[in-house]
Amino acid sequence: MCRWIAYSGTPVLLSQVLFQPRHSLIDQSLHSRMGVETTNGDGFGVGWYTRNADTPAVLRDVGPAWNNRNLLEVAHHVRSGLFFAHIRASTGTAVQQTNSHPFRRGRWMWMHNGAIRGFHRLRRDLTLAVDPALYPDIEGSTDSELMFFLALTSGLTEDPPGAVARMAGLVERVGHAHDIPDPLQMTVALSDGDRVWAFRYSSEGRSRSLYFSTEVNALRSLHPDAAFLRDISDETRLVVSEPLGDLPGAWNEVPESSYGIVQPGPDALHSFRPVA
């Protein structure tokens, strides 16, 4: 499957999150501890928001993240207060640039770890459920991108949690109609440039790993000597497929069948249930 990071908070160089931590996303591309595969080398992508742009910038490639010079160059020169990064382990679709995450439409970005079970059998029915006005913008062949466009069809830009719930319900209904057990496995991150939503759900109730960072002011109390905590705001938060280090008290598991919102002011955590 895949590994990903969503960062929101004080603008930082991408390299500070992608390369510097002890168990950074780049380290996870070779030595994942909690993924289905140890190695995630079937492409990568980063997407970041800047103050004056109407859409996020996206850099995607088909090779592994650990030796990509363009990623290294960009990460050491681009600073952002909200960005996504994803390393891919294909579940059967082609390794090509259009299949690397994150996916983008307008202000929105989407990335996913997981799979639609039996996707080759369900793909036609699910594709026909996409709004015909949106369909021409599907570029790749992954279940992840199709899930994004199904959520867009279901009203993502007006009601992100409701749209993802309706997308999940559709995937499960179509899967069950084709006698596919436990059709959906997903940890999803999406953003509009102001907020980040993160979802953890699977039909079988044993979802892929997902963690969020402890509030910065609490971490400062726990670790007053940690220099990097002095330079970031109380609003800074990370959502990750697996922890980036072993700092005690820094990471919290996202509960099964739930979603969180990282936003200005208090963040929120809610239960998640697909809508039939």
From TrEMBL:
Residue ranges constituting the Glutamine amidotransferase type-2 domain according to the UniProt record: 2-243
Keywords: Glutamine amidotransferase, Transferase
PROSITE patterns with a match to the protein in the record: GATASE_TYPE_2 (PS51278)
Protein name: Glutamine amidotransferase class-II
InterPro entries reported for this sequence: EgtC-like (IPR026869), Gamma-glu_amide_hydrolase (IPR052373), GATase_2_dom (IPR017932), Ntn_hydrolases_N (IPR029055)
Gene3D superfamilies referenced in this protein's UniProt entry, alphabetically: Glutamine Phosphoribosylpyrophosphate, subunit 1, domain 1
GO molecular function: transferase activity
